[in-house]
Design brief:
By secondary structure, the chain is an alpha/beta fold. It has seven helices and six strands. The relative contact order is 0.15. About 5% of the residues have low confidence.
């Protein structure tokens, strides 16, 4: 996981173990199927090739220092080695990059036209908040239809009216992408719209919704290799800047 930019902390590892135990109904001595400290340290002893490393400081504290030419060059060297090991340097059509951006449906109002002398001017806005759009492009500029994520559960209108043909629809309480939505996009949309040649590389940021036990298994079975753009480098290299 760390090799592709997804270093896991103790809580993430034990949560994943708990999900495996829940899914396969394996007998175990752990309260609520959650391993404790003793299991954790025994796990580290059984796997001496794994070490605990201190991650960089919080993003806001290290952003300016981390986005240096040296840091970016180092990331590219590691990324190139990853592509070479997996025979993904050529053709570039097999390298994909996905990222989500939020778009306000109720932008801050500016000045509006009104008759001279009018004391009160009314301005009608939408109360729908914002939507999130996850787009995905490849290294030669090809793309697949995006996923639109709308806030809410029920709609009195057709939220997909006017959207790009073939787009994927998602909804969440706060319009943010969730693990369930990302997994659905990956399994029902991304894999159906890309060419059949495998493997492919999918670049993404390190958001917690982007990787879990289920999509790791799905990606392995379908020749999709995930690779992380770490913070804060993803802020200047990610596709949303295009």
């Amino acid at each position: 996981m760390a090799e592709i930019g997804y270093g896991q902390c103790r809580q993430q590892v034990t949560t994943m173990v708990s999900r495996i135990l829940d899914k396969y109904k394996r007998p175990n001595p752990f309260p609520n199927n959650i391993p404790g400290k003793d299991w954790w340290y025994a796990f580290l002893r059984r796997h001496p090739e794994i070490t605990l490393r201190t991650p960089p400081p919080a993003l806001e504290a290290c952003r300016a220092k981390a986005c240096t030419p040296k840091a970016i060059s180092s990331w590219y060297i590691d990324y190139e080695q990853f592509l070479l090991r997996n025979n993904l340097i050529d053709p570039p059509q097999k390298i994909w990059n996905c990222d989500e951006s939020g778009f306000s449906l109720c932008p801050k109002s500016g000045k509006v036209l009104a008759a001279s002398g009018t004391k009160i001017v009314y301005y009608t806005t939408s109360s729908k908040g914002q939507i999130t759009v996850l787009a995905c492009v490849n290294a030669v500029g090809g793309s697949i239809p995006p996923i639109y994520i709308f806030p809410g559960v029920r709609f009195s209108y057709n939220p997909m009216e006017g959207c790009v043909d073939g787009s994927y629809f998602g909804k969440s309480e706060n319009d943010w992408i969730t693990q369930e939505l990302f997994n659905g996009w990956l399994e029902k949309h991304f894999v159906c719209h890309i060419p059949p040649e495998r493997p492919v590389c999918l670049l993404l940021d390190g958001h917690g919704s982007h990787i879990d036990l289920d999509n790791s298994k799905f990606c392995k079975e379908n020749g999709i290799l995930l690779y992380c753009l770490p913070p804060p480098i993803h802020l200047i290299l990610h596709s949303h800047l295009a």
